[in-house]
């Protein structure tokens, strides 16, 4: 028996009629010779011989009676690849815009809870004899930054597919009996008072700070009460800022993209030359994470200006970082943490904007270690599952959601440096397809390096950011702007950043 972790269960609870939390990868293949393309039958045969390498893709959920506790993982006796691997065909002419529109619709569909939480689509009919594979998986199974690594198991580093020994994973979980699950639930309920007490003690010193960060109605009153009720000896020292502690992450300001108001999505993708990104990184003494975040900051600034929303403050963003070791990548459980960062969209100068991004990302790990958002998740995890569902449908969901309230999510992962092949066909691009939610704004920007380019996927709520292709076009302009800065000697190089546990 393997029970879902509290964070994985929260990602399941976070799904609503307008929010799906699954993530995915869009892999573009080809071009291929006429008649030499990939068939859905060949893709199913390839998956059938390799899915045993990623055990969680065989697992399905088993709910606890009456919803008293977190679900369990159970091995599927039969994996219906006809359901999990499908094909769609674009009507002519098969442009990238049509491909993205198809992915928008597929990304908006929730995954069935009665089957293993993943699906794969072979997309035919692209221009130039190309094809695409879109795979989506729930983060309760494999977190977003590890999904690309797991899916790469189905690919090869040479045109000749490798031979994979067919053996099942050692981790196989049998169906749990109702009495056994109820017994475990009773034990967890017996421990509930102690867990709530421990979580409350950890959260108490941060109550004033947490209340100030919330944007729900009544947050100001909550902050006043928290400061009055929290014992002085529990509070953080008043001179902590002078002792070198980082400033708290900004509360998310009002923007035109507060969160998805419908389940309809828009997706767009593009590739940036990785050589130019590395040149900016080297010339200005920063990291690839800094450059990617600065590019996102620039396009958001321009988008807000174009939509008559003056960028007069910073945006509150979060960046996922992986905490999964190589030995854990084929195991279930969400192993991501979120770094809170500030995006200086109010800075007009591109080089100073990059420097401020660098400063924010450098301070983020230290701020994250003391961030109340991680403690809030502990409190949410301590609540019985039967209570978390109703709470997640009220304004108090901010206290139990797996992510803090932010304007958007920005992610960057280091992908394979060598070309990949599927059934002998070269993969020319790997574009992340992330998710948007009520708590993380109506736009998410995800980037992953692959070969000599940086592949970027942007997903939005269609009603809030319908012009997502304009945003991808501005990424190229933003990179050209930073490249020009490297040739201007009046810009000072930022201090060399300390080592951070980031992707590059």
TrEMBL record:
E.C. code: 2.3.1.20
One GO process term, biological-process aspect? response to hypoxia
Report if keyword Metal-binding is assigned.
no
Q: Name one GO cellular component term.
A: plasma membrane
Region spans: Disordered: 232-262
Pro residues bias located where?
247-259
Instruction: Name the keywords, alphabetized.
Output: Acyltransferase, Glycerol metabolism, Lipid biosynthesis, Lipid metabolism, Transferase
| Molecular function GO labels | diacylglycerol O-acyltransferase activity
Question: Is-annotated flag, keyword Acyltransferase?
Answer: yes
To which pathway does this protein belong?
Answer: Glycerolipid metabolism; triacylglycerol biosynthesis; Lipid metabolism
Q: Which family does it belong to?
A: Belongs to the long-chain O-acyltransferase family.
Please give the name of this protein: Diacylglycerol O-acyltransferase
What organism is the protein native to? Rhodococcus jostii (strain RHA1)
From the broadest rank down, the organism's phylogenetic lineage runs: Bacteria, Bacillati, Actinomycetota, Actinomycetes, Mycobacteriales
